[in-house]
Structures are given as C-alpha cells and as structure tokens.
Design a protein that fits this description.
Blueprint lengths: L20 H13 L2 H13 L11 H14 L4 H9 L11 H9 L5 H8 L1 H5 L23 H12 L12 H11 L5 E2 L4 E2 L6 H7 L1 H5 L1
Antiparallel strand pairs: 1-2
The structure holds fe (ii) ion.
C-alpha cells in the first residue's frame, strides 16, 4: 500500500472533526495564495464557449466578448464589464439554468446589484424574443423598482440582445484577461454565508475562521 508522508505544509487530519485552528489557518493561507487560479479557470471556461454555436450567427464566446465590448464602450464599470463577459458562461454546463451558474461564479466578487442582474437577465432579454416561445415579453416588469433595474435594462437592450453580429468590431479575450484577473483577485464576501470581507489582508484569516464556507 502506498502512503503519502505529510509535510509541514500538509494538514494531517483525515476527518474534519479532528482538525485544528492552526491547520485551517495554513489551509486558508494556501487557498488564498492560489487565488489567481480562479481567474485562470474562468478564462478557460470562457475560451471553451467557442465550441458552442447552436444555430446562432456567432458562437457563444463571440457573443460574450461582443456583449463585454459594448459594455466597455458604453462606459460600464469594471465589475459590469466582467459580468457582461461572463453572463452566459453557464451555457458551458447547461442552457436552462445558465444565469444562476454565472451569477454564482461572480457572487463573491461583485456588488449585490450586479449579482442580481446576472441572475435575472433572461427576464430582461425576454422582451426581445419571448413572444416566439409563447412566454411573457414583459417578464422584466416584475423587477421594476429594484435598485438595479435601469442597469439591467441597459445591459439587456444595448449590450446583450444586440451582440450576435459577426461584422461587429469585437475585442478579443486577451483584451479582457487583465480585468478578469483584477476582479477575481479578491473575494469581497464568502458566497455560502453572504459574509462580507473587508480587505484582502484578512481574507485568509476569515477563510480559516469560516472553513465550512471556504471548503464546501
Ligand atoms: Fe447573452
């Protein structure tokens, strides 16, 4: 039988109920030290969207890049540009629940309004095509009055629904990579707990002190 000898950096517990605060502090330190892999993984997922076209005039990577390009040229914030880039990334897993998948990837790194906007973006997009499915094109109206309504409307009407144009001057993924790294460098809350994190300096400590949120 092969066994792996623990190093000083490797926690020795084989069950969580035998773990110690010191071990979790080390796991938190290493987890935060590897934070850059989040952005790298997100960029890999985005690149894979080029394999999905499913009858549209452009593939899903081009659609996402074009949406983000329009957002950037429209003066959107960094988090809104990156959210525009990722809004359909969930399609790499499944189309039916893709807004929720994208929203959860973004949740620890963006404001409540941007998280909400990505969750509900189909309701706003519906104005432009739901009639073809016998669904309510005014689905967005159920959200009227929400603080993010105007931005969600602009996202859908000006940036998302217009971005199936093969002739548009779409910026490449490499253009957005620095913004993706910038946004995903620092979680501002632990998604599982909805807990706010204050500065990057205390992230490893807070991850260590809330191991269920960091590791589930
Ligand atoms: Fe879209």
């Amino acid at each position: 039988m092969t066994t792996t000898e623990p190093t000083t950096e490797t926690a020795r517990f084989t069950r969580m109920d035998e773990s110690t605060a010191e071990q979790w502090a080390e796991i938190g330190r290493q987890t935060f030290g590897h934070q850059a892999r989040v952005a790298e993984k997100v960029l890999e997922l985005l690149a894979e969207l080029a394999t999905i076209t499913d009858g549209f005039a452009v593939d899903q990577l081009t659609h996402c890049l074009q949406t983000a390009t329009r957002a950037e040229r429209g003066g959107a914030s960094t988090e809104m540009i990156v959210a525009s880039l990722l809004h359909d990334v969930g399609k790499i897993v499944a189309v039916v629940n893709h807004p929720a998948i994208a929203a959860e990837i973004l949740k620890p790194y963006v404001s409540d309004d941007v998280y909400w906007l990505i969750q509900v973006h189909q309701d706003f997009q519906g104005q432009h095509y739901y009639e073809h499915f016998g669904m309510d094109p005014a689905a967005r109206e159920r959200h009227r009055g929400h603080r993010g309504f105007e931005l969600a409307q602009r996202f859908a009407d000006e940036w998302d629904q217009t971005s199936f144009d093969p002739s548009y001057d779409t910026l490449p993924l490499e253009h957005f990579a620095p913004l993706v790294h910038e946004l995903f460098a620092t979680p501002i809350r632990l998604a599982a707990e909805g807990q706010r994190l204050t500065t990057s300096a205390n992230v490893s400590t807070e991850i260590a002190s809330a191991p269920t949120a960091a590791t589930r």
